[in-house]
Specification:
- The complex is a heterodimer of chains A (373) and B (119).
- Chain A has 373 residues and is an alpha+beta fold.
- Among the domains of chain A are: 138 residues, Probable tRNA modification gtpase trme, domain 1 (Gyrase A, domain 2, 2-Layer Sandwich), CATH 3.30.1360; 86 residues, Aminomethyltransferase beta-barrel domains (Elongation Factor Tu (Ef-tu), domain 3, Beta Barrel).
- Chain A has 8 helices and 20 strands.
- In chain A, the strands form 4 sheets. Chain A has a 6-stranded mixed sheet. Chain A has a 6-stranded antiparallel beta barrel with strand order 15-18-17-16-19-20.
- The longest helix of chain A has 12 residues.
- Chain A is globular and about 65 Å long.
- By secondary structure, chain B is an alpha+beta fold.
- Chain B has one domain: RNA polymerase II/Efflux pump adaptor protein, barrel-sandwich hybrid domain (OB fold (Dihydrolipoamide Acetyltransferase, E2P)).
- Chain B has 4 helices and 9 strands.
- Chain B has a 6-stranded antiparallel sheet. A 3-stranded antiparallel sheet of chain B has the order 4-6-7.
- In chain B, a hairpin with a 3-residue loop joins strand 6 and strand 7.
- The chains are: A alpha+beta (373), B alpha+beta (119).
Amino acid sequence: MSDLKRLPLHDLHVGLGGKMVPFAGYEMPVQYGLGVMKEHLHTRAAAGLFDVSHMGQVILRPKAGYEATALDFERLMPVDVLGVAPGRQRYGLFTNDAGGILDDLMFANRGDHLFVVVNAACKEADLAHMQAHLSGTTEVIAVTDRCLLALQGPAAEAALARLVPAVAAMRFMDVAQLASPFGELWISRSGYTGEDGYEISVPDAGAEALAQALLDMPEVEAIGLGARDSLRLEAGLCLYGHDIDTTTSPVEAALTWAIQKARRSGGAREGGFPGAARILRELAEGPERLRVGLRPEGRAPMREGVALHAPDGTPLGQITSGGFGPSVEAPVAMGYVPRAFAGIGTALAGDLRGKRLPVAVAAMPFQPTTYKR
Amino acid sequence: MKYTKEHEWLRVEGDLVVVGITAHAAEALGDVVFVELPEPETQVGAGDEVCVIESVKAASDILAPVDGEIVAVNEALSDNPGLVNEDPLGAAWFFKMKLDDLSVLDDFMDEDEYNELIG
């Protein structure tokens, strides 16, 4: 694994029994001693600590006022950036001229600047993209001296508040910069598991002590990428490069909730983002295909790549993520089908090892979310 | 007990061979959530994919270790796939085969040789 980068907390993961695998150019813990199933269930029952330091952290520092930067950033996404209040975070998507998705991300208004978290596999391209389009108004600064930890689950608040009491008062999608014995923490009340919880950006120098302080608490276990994937799948959340990519539009991906009124037809700042023609048309007329939740009827998981068919055999599309949902206690999946087949309950078939097995369109999330709004 | 390079164990029971996967294999697979068993009374050839094991991570095949007839399958695994993790060498046997000649088993590894393989 010599070409792979190591996380600042690499030795901690190895010491915890983490099984390290290549992911997005990094050696990452896919699971620890508990295994994927127990790690998943522990996160939903108590609290799980994830090291997501491979993700890209970026500061957008205005050269000519916050509004100019926010408007420039907005020109890269079908998202209302200007309307995000100070101390609040929002989900965003970079689109291309064809209306496809270059990456999905989280961004926060931190008063006089923006803080952005992007996917690891896309971070170099995202940085170049932002440099190319924002440099007139904005200094684009890659943050390379901080780890990013996620603490997720119903006990996350109690656990983190022991170290940083102010986090208890945060609501879902709030952000705060808080002093701590581990250095200044950049905390958001969000995550990617469907559970209440936090993402914590911590200076490299304080990261191990923070992680260890959390892991020393009885509620907290270290959780690997395997459970992170099954947790986000049950929560109906997209994994970039699988469920969304440059060929899928945000409307096809059922991410229309991420496109606020201000950027839609008739909105205050209608259009003006890459791919607007297609995305606004799909909003008005409906897309040709849609990302849907899927529940295989049997116990056999249907994974990424499984072909989907109508009952009469017409090919419809394929599964983009799928597996066994430990909390749902059944296989769950998501994939793309033509809009006419996207209704909840529609009976479809999936090709599994030469057999065509029943699978039904189902509502997402598969597991109710527990965000503290 | 004999072992294959594919991490199966083979145990002679009268004139039958019982086939399962090793503790090492079960550990590597992770939590098993689904097992697809072969049809009993089918003739199989060595190397045929006869079972599918799905863990939370991935799908894997179990290959028939030798030529022969599958005479029984462990239906308990259909209802409780987690048995593969709980008791891989005992309750979680997958199938029983009838061979023409049990001496073909001599070619497989014994326990010491297998332990060396997984070292």
